[in-house]
Write a structure and sequence with these properties.
Elements lengths: L5 H14 L9 H8 L3 H13 L3 E4 L5 E4 L8 H9 L21 H19 L2 H7 L1 H15 L10
Antiparallel strand pairs: 1-2
Length: 160
């Protein structure tokens, strides 16, 4: 099976949690771990990778916590995979600097390369603002706000 690591999945869930909050909101690692069902020690390690990649900011002390380092519109699933995995490659023969006995003439290598390029391009377009907008919780909250905005406003009219 080809798949992403548990660490990448957890990193994406962590960033999604932060993207669902008001911009600039800081939360603690234990809070995210509890809410998103992530092991706290693993979450701490992932936060370190995401901070190094410029995806998260951290602040220690009272009022501290973690938050997105840039808007959710500027963070993609590809950014997460590059921060945690080091990139996206479907076959080891595509990794830079590793010699392949078949070289550039390998038709299978070319197919793996094309598939890797398609996957990278797709993941680069999936930003966390689009994931937040597609979440059922977000849609329900948006619908509720829209319904409240359309309620008629009752004004009291003086009788005199």
């Amino acid at each position: 099976m080809i798949g992403i690591s548990r660490q990448s999945d957890y990193a994406a869930r962590l960033v999604l949690h932060l993207a669902c909050l008001e911009p600039g909101t800081r939360v603690s690692i234990p809070e995210i771990s509890k809410t998103r069902l992530l092991p706290a020690p693993f979450t701490r390690r992932i936060v370190g990778d995401l901070v190094k990649a410029g995806i998260l900011n951290t602040l220690r002390g009272t009022g501290g916590g973690i938050r997105l380092a840039r808007p959710a519109t500027e963070i993609s699933l590809l950014d997460i995979l590059e921060a945690v995995e080091g990139g996206v490659v479907l076959n080891a023969c595509l990794e830079g600097g590793k010699p392949c006995v078949f070289g550039q003439g390998c038709l299978v290598q070319r197919a793996w390369g094309d598939a890797t390029d398609l996957l990278r391009r797709h993941l680069a377009t999936v930003t966390f603002d689009t994931l937040v907008g597609a979440s059922p919780d977000h849609q329900a909250a948006h619908s509720q706000r829209a319904a409240q905005a359309q309620k008629p406003v009752r004004r009291s009219i003086p009788l005199s």
